[in-house]
Amino acid sequence: MNLMGKEDREYSNQEIPQVSVIAFRTCPICRKKHSQKVCEQISEADLVHTDAMLVGKWLYPIPKLTCCDGAIEATHAKLLWIIPQPGESVPFRIGSKDIPAVSEKTSLYGEIISPKRLAELQNLWIAQECLWLEKKEEYVKHSSAFFHSCWPQPAKEMDPWQMVDLLDELNMLPEDLKNLTRDKSVRTRPRGDKKRYMVVKRIKDYVIREFPKSHLDLFFYHTVDRIIYFSLLPGIYSGKWDVLTYETSLGQTLLSFLLLTFPLIDQLRYLRTEATVALLSGTEGNHESELRRYVKLVKKQLTEKEASLQRVTVELQQTRERTALLEKKLYEAKEEVRKLQEQLVALRKEASETDYIRKIKNLKGLIDDLQSEISRYQTEQKKNSPANSPSNLPVNRSDELADVMFLGQRRAEQPLHIDVLKGKTVGIFGALRDHGEREKLPFRILCQDGEKQAECKRILPQCDAIVVLTQHIAHGTMWMIKEYAAMTSKPLIFSRHTSIPLILQQLSQVLPREDANTLFSPEDRG
After folding, report:
1. Most C-beta atoms within 10 A of its C-beta, which of 94, 102, 230, 425?
2. What is the model's pTM?
3. What is the number of structural domains in the chain?
4. Whole-number pLDDT of residue 335
5. Nearest 5 degrees, angle CA 290-CA 294-CA 296?
6. Domain end: 322, 349, 381, which one?
């Protein structure tokens, strides 16, 4: 360090070098280029009256240039400096990431920082500057120790022509190498050319083997100061460390150490991460090391994993939504089932009560019919004289005699009309005495003795008219048939006859005049 010149000591103690700004634009009418040097800085209070451009941490007003179209604002700017040696930057567009505009307007520039955001950034910059002033000496000391310990690895990684230019600038290059490197044809030769290879090899050998150790400090400070004061510190204000251009002049090993050990506050540590990733990834066209290829592979795998994770996250979200929808539908279905069960219980209760009421009504009707029949029997018994009473005849012949007398009386009164029964099915339930010739009739007759209710239930749906022989059927069967007729509204008559001709005669007389579900013969009605 004590070998550094006076100028170098003064430069190393300075902060970011002051720069001059040249603002310019091309007139859209006459196509003339107008420029103006901007030296006066402005404060945040002046932003109310004018827009500004942010150069590092300093604010410069955006000048208005007068031309054919009147006073118009400058569109581009470039920077000029004299420390450590005179130089200038490439033109930057005002309102870009390199020179952002500070304005409340949002439509004039591409990259705009509002005054409120600028105040927040200035607080971060002040904290970072305090940290840098506190850690600067320690950082430079550790970097120098690392440079000396790993030498000549940085020399092997540096670009030989940039190394020669730096040594020539420091007047540390032998005359024979100066004359050799000034031959421009050597630099333009392609890689692999023998002459170029020999020149590069001689330069490397001189720096590695013959370069005086006492000159390493001067060489270190001139190389490290460039990246600190022209990339790392300005990058704090621009929000990006553009360090790839310094890889060939410093080497990847030394540059990585400078990036990893540079003191940063927590809010700005993303600069180190982005710069390190960019350095390890390399630039297109450069020879990639194993580490760079591995980093690219890991980044690719991470990208694929992130995409897969994103897909799984979306699928999981969709599954959760479907599950929630299904749970909602399940809850609604359970509620509907519960309501249906309640309705079913109510309907069963109502149906049970309805059936019970209907059975009571049917029983009452049967009781009324039986009472009417008993009254009719009693009336007929009173009307019959002892002389005409069939009690003197044998009991088993009284029904036959009554049927013969009834048939003779009906035949005498009117002929048998069975056209109303044509094509129908008549069901007779009870014990018949005379079945007659049923095959020749234009309708079908189904007979059942009325003892088994199951057989009656099988025949009843086939019948269009129902006849119940009251004196030759079980009471339970008779009530069941009456209940069925009431439910289906089928014609039903009760008869005391046991002969089919007499039953049909009775049915033919009553059926056309039916006015209720239950029909009675004239004799039954009294």
Report:
1. 94
2. 0.43
3. 4
4. 92
5. 120
6. 381
Cβ–Cβ < 8 Å for 227, 255: yes
- Write out the residue range of the structural domain in which residue 67 sits: 19-111
Taking the alpha carbons at both ends of the chain, their separation in whole angstroms is 147
Residue in the block written with tokens 């200038």: 88
φ, ψ at 253 (rounded to 5°)? -65, -55
Task: Assess contact for 505 and 441: CB atoms under 8 A.
Answer: no
Answer yes or no: do 262 and 352 share one domain. no
Residue 441 makes CB contacts below 8 A (sequence gap 6+) with 418, 421, 504
Which residues face 382 on adjacent strands? none
Q: What was the pLDDT predicted at 325? A: 92
Q: How many CB atoms lie within 10 A of CB 13?
A: 8
- DSSP code of 85? S
**What are residue 28's phi and psi, to 5 degrees?**
-70, -10
Give the 3-state secondary structure of residue 80.
strand
Ramachandran quadrant class, 392 (left: phi over 0; alpha: psi -120 to 50; beta: rest) = alpha
Which residue's entry shows tokens 């290829």?
Answer: 293
- Cα(289)–Cα(296) distance, integer angstroms: 11
Nearest by Cα to 231 from 287, 283, 291, 272: 272
CA–CA gap between residue 442 and residue 263 (Å, rounded): 119
3-state secondary structure of 102: strand
Alpha-carbon gap, residue 524 to 519, rounded angstroms: 10
What single string gives the DSSP state of each residue in 178-228? HHHHT-HHHHHSPTT-HHHHHHHHHHHHIIIIIS-GGGHHHHHHHHHHHHI
d(CA 376, CA 286): 127
User: What CA–CA distance (Å, rounded) separates 466 from 165?
Assistant: 129
* 267 and 320 fall within a common domain: no
